[in-house]
Amino acid sequence: MGGPGTRLPYIKIQWYIKRKEGMSPEDFHKYWEEDHAEFVQNIPGFRQITKRYSQFHPAPEFQAKAAALGMPTLDFDGVAELWVESVDAYGKHMSQEALLEASQKEGAMFMGPGSRVLIGYETLVHGEPVPGIPSEKSYTL
C-alpha cells in the first residue's frame, strides 16, 4: 500500500507558546483557555479570515511518560493552531494597526519570550479528514 498522502486544503499556522515569566502553568492554561479564547473570538473579522482555531494543552503526566520512554519533549507550554486559506490575507488582516496593537497587548498577558511560529500545509497519510472541510485545495502559498 503506502504512497503519498492527501494534502489537506488549508494552511496551518502553529504558535508554540511559552508562558509569561512568573505565571504558573495553571494560571497560564486557565487564562489561555478562557480569556484569550474569548479575545480571539471577538477580533473583528477573525471568523472570516480563519477557518479553525484550536489550542493544544500538553498534559504533564503524558510529557513525563514520553520522557521516561526516552522521547525528547518540546519545551513549550502549549500550541495554538489556526487554519487559513491565505497567509497573506491573514497577515494583512491581523496587521491592521488597531488589531496588531490589541493582539500584542493581549499576548503580553500570558505569553513569554521564546514563543515560536511554524507555517505550512498538512498531508494526511492515515485516517479521515476533519468532517466539513472541502476536499479540494483552497489555499494559496
UniProtKB/TrEMBL annotation:
Pfam family, one: EthD
Family: Belongs to the tpcK family.
Domain of life: Eukaryota
Domain EthD: 20-112
Gene Ontology MF terms: oxidoreductase activity
The protein's name: EthD domain-containing protein
Cross-referenced Gene3D superfamilies: 3.30.70.100
